[in-house]
Design brief:
The structure is a single chain. Helices cover about 45% and strands about 15% of the residues. It is α/β, with parallel strands linked by helices and about 100 residues long. The protein has a 4-stranded parallel β-sheet. Helix 2 links the parallel strand 3 and strand 4. It is globular.
């Protein structure tokens, strides 16, 4: 399944829409997510941001052997987008090393 985390944009065809980080994480826990696209600003920072999903994936990859899906960021918030992309690069580098062991 492809998961699209966003509070405002139209969901692309073939993607499952979620509005909050915990919804995305619940789907990631199923092991059925092949791709995830993340927005950062979701309208209520107290409920989390797309970066929270990146942090969860990173923790699971590092500590639990989680195999991350393909990840992308579609946020218009440029500083947050760069922070999220840096986290994704770290995840991909670690997951690549772990897979080669």
């Amino acid at each position: 399944m492809k998961v699209y985390l966003d509070d405002e944009r139209r969901t692309p065809d073939g993607w499952v829409r979620v509005y909050w980080p915990q919804e995305a994480i619940a789907l990631l826990r199923t092991g059925q997510v092949s791709e995830i696209s993340l927005d950062h600003d979701l309208g209520d920072d107290a409920r989390g941001t797309g970066y929270d999903v990146v942090l969860w994936i990173e923790e699971q990859v590092m500590t639990a052997g989680f195999r991350p899906p393909a990840m992308r960021v579609h946020s218009a918030n440029a500083p947050a987008r760069e922070k999220m992309q840096a986290g994704i690069r770290t995840i991909e580098a670690y997951a690549g090393r772990a897979g080669a062991e």
